[in-house]
Design brief:
Rossmann fold; 6-stranded parallel β-sheet; alpha/beta; single chain
Length: 330
């Protein structure tokens, strides 16, 4: 089966199995032995059984209230308005889209971009979502369209030599923005009375490095991030944005109890006792206190997470699921 991926990443070729920056989309490409192409070059793609498009988010035009943020157009407006999917379907068997970011992100596009983006997905053969929760969004907008989930994935081969050495410190899953909900994660983390850490990102706010008892880590490539994560004992990720769930999955691999959003598959599957509504900060605070004071509960959550990871996110299980979906469509 020949598979190609198209994304905003400006490179052509395969993802090396030794790539130290094996984040989720790279792991997908590697596991499917897929070729990757820069999205702008879609007219050059032909002869594939499946072309998987990760349509980029780009910059948003409006804020959550619909007020204009910038007069500049989304840098990918021309892609949304193009004939990319219809052109690809002329030269390849099937074309699929893979969700990028939360489903609602399109609401922050201009009206023209919203409809153009919708029309691109309407022409796709399969729509792949991040989580089971997301599937009803797509099923409601595209009645009768085949909608499947594409689970988040880690390539364990690259990190199997890392021996976790948990210390009395806590990692929060994102910065102090609405996207990540870092403020509430930090406030809950203070109950532990341990050093608190966060990784820098595109959503970092000025002054985060001045917050008491908070260390801001630099933006790390995937392998370095996983190695650093292995040194933590607790994790809190009250991120209201429902996305791919890589943070929870990374924590589950090492058995680091993670309190997080119950609408994210990796969180609710690997940490069923620690999954809450993202806005339910009260329950999150109660759970962190229980992890702190009840060692048997801590160990139960830790051991269960590692086992549930193996049962649901092992790469062989991932391949079986994905190839069944793709082969049954041929």
């Amino acid at each position: 089966m020949k598979i190609a991926f198209l994304s905003e990443l400006p490179f052509n070729g395969k993802v090396s199995p030794s790539n130290n920056n094996m984040r989720t989309e790279f792991a997908w490409m590697n596991a499917l032995n897929a070729d990757h192409f820069f999205l702008e070059n879609w007219n050059q793609i032909s002869g594939y059984d499946y072309v998987m498009i990760i349509f980029p988010k780009g910059g948003v035009f409006l804020n959550s209230e619909g007020k204009t943020l910038t007069k500049d157009k989304n840098v990918y407006s021309h892609i949304f308005a193009s004939s990319v999917v219809s052109d690809l379907k002329l030269k390849n068997k099937f074309v699929c889209s893979i969700q990028e970011g939360p489903t609602w992100y399109v609401n922050d596009f201009t009206l023209e971009d919203q409809f153009n983006f919708y029309n691109q997905l309407a022409e796709c053969d399969i729509l792949f979502s991040h989580n089971q929760y997301d599937t009803n969004w797509y099923k409601g907008l595209y009645p009768g369209k085949r909608v499947e989930t594409i689970p988040t994935l880690m390539v364990e081969e690259l990190i199997k030599t890392i021996e976790p050495k948990p210390e009395n410190k806590v990692i929060i899953g994102g910065n102090f923005s609405r996207w990540y909900g870092g403020f509430q994660s930090y406030m809950v983390a203070t109950e532990l009375s341990h050093p608190i850490f966060v990784q820098s990102s595109h959503s970092s706010r000025q002054g985060e490095d001045q917050i008491p008892n908070l260390t801001v880590l630099p933006r790390l490539i995937w392998h370095d991030w996983i190695k650093t994560l292995s040194t933590f004992k607790y994790a809190i990720h009250l991120m209201p944005t429902i996305a791919a769930g890589t943070f929870s999955l990374n924590c589950a691999y090492f058995g680091i109890p993670c309190i997080g959003n119950n609408k994210v598959d990796t969180q609710k599957i690997c940490f069923p006792e620690l999954s809450v509504d993202a806005e339910d900060v009260y329950t999150a605070r109660e759970l962190v206190l229980r992890l702190k004071n009840d060692i048997s509960f801590y160990n139960e959550c830790s051991n269960k997470a590692k086992e549930l990871y193996k049962q649901n996110y092992n790469i062989d299980i991932w391949k079986t699921k994905m190839f069944n979906i793709l082969e049954n469509n041929l």
